[in-house]
Structures are given as structure tokens and as C-alpha cells.
Design goal:
Elements: H1 2-7, H2 12-18, H3 25-37, E1 41-46, E2 49-54, H4 58-73, H5 78-88, H6 93-108
Antiparallel strand pairs: 1-2
Helix pairs in contact: 2-3
Length: 111
């Protein structure tokens, strides 16, 4: 999905070429087909090739993935997920300041 979002559209060969350690071409095609069946992608026919395009905007997909991640691995706790990210990351002072500002804004907005 990342390759398709970055390019706007891509063929299976494009996706495979963009991956650092790609699986077989047929595995890439199978994954793209599964993503299409799940409603994440659609395709257009360009001669003999299928060109895949995202169905869901990247920001909406990101929010959905985060909700699933938090629910699955952190018992639905955004605080536990945030703490895990902070614990394993080497954040700069600017990043800590941004997080602090986001937390304060959310607190003021009553979220």
C-alpha cells in the first residue's frame, strides 16, 4: 500500500521493484488481489497490465490502521500505545515539544 500511496498508482511489477527484499512476482500479485478484494485497492486495465489505485485516502487508512493496532496490541488504550512508541523511539526535543503541544490541545478540547 505504501508504494501505491507514494506513486498514486502502480502495477505489480512497480510494487515489486520498489520493495527492498520483494517476494515473488506472483506473491505480489496475490497480495494486490487480496487488497482489492478487501476494498483497499481498485484496478484499471492498461493493455495487458493491471494498474492499481488506492480506494481509501491515505489519512483515512492510517487512522483505521492505528485503531486496529491500538485495539489489537494495546487493549484499546491509546495511552499504552503512545507510551510504547515513546519508550522505543529516540525523540528529539522538537518532537517531544510537538507531542506535548498535541496533548495539551487535546486536553483543552476535552478529548
Amino acid at each position: 500500500m505504501d508504494v501505491i500511496y507514494a506513486r498514486g498508482q502502480a502495477t505489480a511489477a512497480d510494487v515489486a521493484a520498489a520493495l527492498p527484499d520483494p517476494p515473488s512476482y506472483s506473491a505480489v500479485r496475490a497480495l494486490l488481489r487480496i487488497l482489492e478484494e478487501k476494498g483497499h485497492l481498485k484496478h484499471e486495465v492498461d493493455g495487458p497490465r493491471y494498474v492499481f489505485l488506492p480506494v481509501v485516502p491515505r489519512d483515512r487508512a492510517r487512522r483505521s490502521a492505528m485503531k486496529n493496532l491500538v485495539r489489537t496490541f494495546f487493549d484499546g488504550s491509546a495511552a499504552q500505545a503512545a507510551a510504547a512508541l515513546i519508550d522505543q523511539s529516540k525523540l528529539s526535543d522538537e518532537e517531544f515539544d510537538r507531542l506535548t503541544a498535541l496533548i495539551e490541545k487535546a486536553r483543552q478540547e476535552g478529548r
